[in-house]
Specification:
alpha/beta; binds pyridoxal-5'-phosphate; 5-stranded parallel beta sheet; 20 helices; about 425 residues
């Protein structure tokens, strides 16, 4: 598959090149040239297939022929070595748990898939690729874990000091080897700006091959379409109209869902559930797209003021506001509402959600008020123990720590402090 740049001035390129470069030379995000719907039979009989078979069929048009069939099957199989269960909470709301991977957030799938693709493309290459990643919390850990020990790839993670949870910080600062963490005095947007600046810095790019492992990278973004298929597989014989509520920050996840829908997956509607960083909620009301600097919330992985993937969503709808609006609703919720929702979910169903899932739950409830006949699935994008400080305020029972969390919690953090771009650049050129 070839990819074009959404800025429309760079030449189209291969999957391999899109993965290695991250962004197009004209700074545009890459987008697949074509999206071919799968045979309707595939969806009619999806419950007879394993998750790995579903994922392979769904992704292969975007990857082949550059990664041979047998290798792609192996990559998919290694990526998906854990479960994606649906938990029914009420007659109209279920949750899809996306946190059973090694860092207990949904980003594990994209990070593991991308690491393996990059590892494959780099296997005969003597020069190193440097993966730069800015994280608001979960990306750092998932990328660190996914890329740990991958030959020819070094990973540099920038995270905002004091603005990620204790578990998140441990996950991204304790691996060592080819993974380094930089602790930035500032916000997530500051981290993202430094990464963007590095990509534009010829002095750096002439010396080293830089790429991004944020959801701007097609190899991290596209595999997220699997989730929607795994949910559909489990629910199709129970409910007629399925609506997805996706807790959204950079909008990669919900945008991947829209690709699944293009592939023919019968999805009735999408809900982008936001915290107070609500540029898309405001846009759908006013038709005016006005990014704002991010504010800190209890669902920190969604603290994004200017979502990178929104431009891909606009491309899917040919920049047509009305057609986007007919397929996507968006609601935004305060920290107070999020904590009340954690409590409500626990009290009424016994389920312990995390703050991101709670925002997804609230989005489902808002949509159901005017559309009572659909079944809403919200994504549980992280395990509640990743955000124990917040969850413990509301849910007072002891929550056992899963083995993935226990394994990092007592490790010693190793991070280099940086305060500005010059220090970042010096760091990159010195190591
Ligand atoms: C990254 C993340 C999100 C937001 O996903 P996007 O694809 O950036 O919209 C939501 N919840 C959790 C727990 C995350 O880590």
């Amino acid at each position: 598959m070839n990819y074009y740049s959404l800025n429309h001035t760079a030449p189209n390129t291969t999957f391999e090149n899109a993965v290695i470069k991250g962004l197009a030379p004209d700074r545009g995000l890459y987008f697949p040239e074509t999206i071919t719907a799968l045979d309707p039979c595939f969806f009619e009989t999806i419950e007879t297939l394993s998750n790995k078979e579903i994922a392979y069929e769904a992704i292969k048009q975007f990857i082949s022929p550059e990664i041979p069939e047998a290798i792609l099957k192996e990559i998919v199989s290694e990526t998906l070595s854990f479960e994606f269960p649906i938990i029914k909470l009420t007659d109209s709301i279920s949750t899809l748990e996306l946190f059973h991977g090694p860092t207990m957030a949904f980003k594990d799938v994209g990070a593991r898939f991308m690491a393996r693709c990059l590892g494959y493309f780099n296997k005969n290459n003597s020069s190193e690729v440097t993966v730069l990643v800015a994280t608001s919390g979960d990306t750092g850990g998932a990328v660190a874990n996914g890329f740990f020990g991958v030959k020819g790839v070094r990973v540099v993670i920038l995270y905002p000091s004091g603005k990620v949870s204790n578990v998140q910080e441990k996950q991204l600062t304790t691996l060592g080897q080819n993974i380094t963490a930089l602790e930035v005095e500032g916000t997530f947007d500051d981290c993202q700006d430094m990464v963007k600046k590095a990509f534009l810095d010829y002095e750096l790019t002439s010396k080293m091959q830089l790429t991004s492992a944020n959801s701007i990278n097609v190899a991290r973004w596209l595999p997220q379409l699997f989730y929607f298929m795994f949910a559909y597989k489990q629910l199709k014989n129970k409910y007629k109209d399925i609506v997805f509520s996706v807790p959204s920050g950079n909008f990669g996840n919900v945008c991947a869902g829209m690709i699944a829908q293009k592939l023919g997956l019968p999805i009735k509607h999408f809900i982008a559930s936001n915290n107070d960083n609500n540029v898309v909620t405001r846009y759908l009301k006013s038709a005016d797209y006005k990014p704002k600097p991010s504010v800190q919330t209890v669902s920190n992985a969604m603290d994004v003021g200017n979502p990178s993937n929104f431009i891909r969503i606009q491309a899917i709808y040919n920049n047509d506001f009305e057609s986007l609006k007919s397929n996507l609703s968006s609601y935004s919720f305060s920290d107070k509402e999020t904590k009340e929702a954690l409590n409500e979910i626990y009290k009424t169903t016994g389920y312990i959600a995390d703050p991101h899932g709670a925002v997804g739950y609230l989005g489902s409830k808002s949509y159901l008020k005017t559309n009572p006949d659909v079944h809403c699935v919200f994504f549980e994008t992280a395990h509640p123990t990743k955000f124990l400080d917040v969850v413990k305020e509301v849910v007072t029972v002891d929550i056992p720590l899963p083995k993935q969390i226990k394994a990092v919690i007592d490790k010693v953090k190793v991070a280099t402090q940086i305060n500005n771009y010059l220090e970042f650049k010096a760091f990159l050129t010195e190591i």
